[in-house]
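Each record in this resource describes a single protein on a pair of labelled lines. The shape at a given residue is found from the number at the same position. The record below illustrates this layout:

***
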Amino acid sequence: MNTDITASVKPEYPVVDRNPPFTKTVANFNTLDYLRLLTITGVSVTVGYLSGIRPNIRGPSMVTGGLIGVMGGFMYAYQNSAGRLMGFFPNEGEVQRYKKA
């Protein structure tokens, strides 16, 4: 069984790193990735606060929503960063940055 996702879908953009490691992917986060992470976290904290039915539950509900938002936002940013490095998303900046190295 072939579990390599890149075998079934060919990248549309230049490939910078076919299998980028965790550290390289996180180091490749751009401003938009961080903005998305913060936005998803902020919305999740707000929804968590508002979903607390009673006032004494709002604090723990807000923290839980925030944790879910941080994880979701990080995974979304990570997916976009890895996709750019693997050539599945537009990656002009990555191609120029890693071509010099």
The chain has a mean pLDDT of 90. DSSP finds four helices and no strands in the chain. Residues 55-86 form the longest helix (32 residues). Residues 52 and 58 are 4 Å apart (CA to CA).
